[in-house]
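Input (structure):
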């Protein structure tokens, strides 16, 4: 289990650590979302397979860490795919990163594999959308994906 600070140490390249922190500064959350997150009354645990050198991971982690500031009881467990590939493949046969799961006791629900499902096809077919995703133009889709997983619990 790794915290966000430990996650940043998954790479020894300072530019990727800096890029992750800079990405977090660019995430904007509206007041309604903050209010909804603040009203969550039970612990939420996220399991994330990610790496700071992965641009898809950088964007997702930036959004999740920003949202987590407003969730009263939250735990985020970062894992390295290279060290725990068997676990990742047992939860997500695609094995892509980021792979994100909501953990509730023994129940593990996949939230995301590489990109939110609602834009996955668009991203695969249009490089410009992928670039926009990395720049934060689809943060709202990431936020909605996370909120929907929390709401469905």
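Output (sequence):
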């Amino acid at each position: 289990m790794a915290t966000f600070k430990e996650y940043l140490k998954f790479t020894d390249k300072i530019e990727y650590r800096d890029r992750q922190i800079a990405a977090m500064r660019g995430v904007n959350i509206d007041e309604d979302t903050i209010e909804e997150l603040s009203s969550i009354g039970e612990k939420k645990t996220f399991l994330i397979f990610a790496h700071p050198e992965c641009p898809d991971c950088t964007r997702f982690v930036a959004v999740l860490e920003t949202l987590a500031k407003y969730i009263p009881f939250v735990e985020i467990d970062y894992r390295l795919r290279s060290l725990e590939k068997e676990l990742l493949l047992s939860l997500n046969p695609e094995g892509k990163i980021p792979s994100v799961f909501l953990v509730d006791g023994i129940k593990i629900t996949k939230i995301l594999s590489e990109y939110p499902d609602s834009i996955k096809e668009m991203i695969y077919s249009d490089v410009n959308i992928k670039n926009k995703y990395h720049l934060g133009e689809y943060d709202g889709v990431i936020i909605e994906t996370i909120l929907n997983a929390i709401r469905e619990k």
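Notes: The radius of gyration is 15 Å. The CA atoms of residues 72 and 145 lie 19 Å apart.
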